[in-house]
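For reproducibility, we list the full input for the glutamine complex.
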Amino acid sequence: LLARVAAHESLGAFLAVDEEVALAQAGAADLWRARGIQGAGHRLLGVPIAHKDIFVTRDFPSTAGSKMLADYHSPFDATVVSRLAAAGAVTLGKLNCDEFAMGGSNENSAYRPARNPWDVTRIPGGSSGGSAVAVAARLVPATTGTDTGGSVRQPASLTGVTGIKPTYGRCSRYGMIAFASSLDQAGPMARSALDCAHLLQAMSGFDPRDATSAEQPVPDFVAETTTLRPGASAERPLAGLRIGLPKEFFGEGVAPGVLGTVRAALAELEKLGATLVEVSLPRTELSIPVYYIIAPAEASSNLSRYDGVRYGHRAKSYKDLGEMYRASRSEGFGPEVKRRIMIGTYVLSHGYYDAYYLQAQKLRRMIADDFQAAFKDCDLIAGPVAPTVARPIGSQTDPVAEYLADIFTLPASLAGLPGISVPAGFGEHGMPVGLQLIGNYWQESALLHAGHALQ
Ligand code: GLN
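The corresponding predicted structure, in tokenized form, follows.
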């Protein structure tokens, strides 16, 4: 695999690969296996993986896709990283992403864009673009990503792999470089729902080092992904499942090829026994302004730690402390990160707080309530992940237009609900299209089960 990774360097999936570390971990896995130590705790023994460069790691640099952290080496591993290592996984390296996970194309990486293996002139999506490319190009069987407003689901959809964002609080955020703390969640990306279940099993669970980590029992995701529910049969594994289609997810603005592919996948789910019902998420459009107030607000606060004093980039020349801060931050951050810091600082400032931030918080609650109303009539919600297939690299220069493309992933993020993207087929230009399924809180198994049935 290391040779395969090297051969596909031009895809820009990896920011760091360390053969020595990988081979040492693989050697340890071999030893465990030889001594018969493989047990339930070692469910991923010897499985090669790689992490989005948002997770801090002791054995590799941790850059968050930013020049700000170009030389940063963490003294500790993120909880998700150490849990996957404890399960026996072998880490090959760190994966490319948009700077501080801000973006949906990987073009905001301070290092280089990542390329979609289905057409290397196109984006793989983002911000977990490297994570998606590594799986889609078969460089590793599984990777980690993070999803604040769609960054696991959207690149999974655009590259034809499976990715799940769990319920907020399911996976520890300890050691995940913070973007918007009330939204950030880790999630696995792999070829199938079942592979995702294996990773999620190892990644999940309460962690006292993350104050928002939930004390929620972790089910047997793998068993629940594959076991038939009462009343279901091998021919109709989804019998009894009600899938809600929000009418706001099927309106104009979705490319015909995407819509057609999603509808075909829904017909397939129906054949598998599911019933389709129409539901409504009336504030879907509002999720864009709400998210693009809340996420930058939290980002502006989280990113204030990069001051050039304790760690991160420090400017070479400055006259006084104020200038040192200014120069270090001007040099270290890229344009999208600066844009978000400015938006965030503005909406939080005295005099504007009530008009923007407070208003956004109230709407966020209403968006979450809309989901609960919809879940009265259905078990899962389905729709597209993104309105179009992957666009050409460099073809979008308007940041607001780019924000609008997040419309179908933001609602679940704001509500803290779990969502999965499973490959549904191909749309415009023969590019992959994912089907999004959204579940109620802690219902990851239901998403994985339906995704598995479809695959
Ligand atoms: N595209 C969204 C943004 O730019 C989502 C990013 C993410 O989920 N990390 O904020």
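The longest strand covers residues 419-426. Residues 101-104, 127, 147-151, 179, 295, 406 surround glutamine (CB under 6 Å). Both points were considered when choosing residues for closer inspection.
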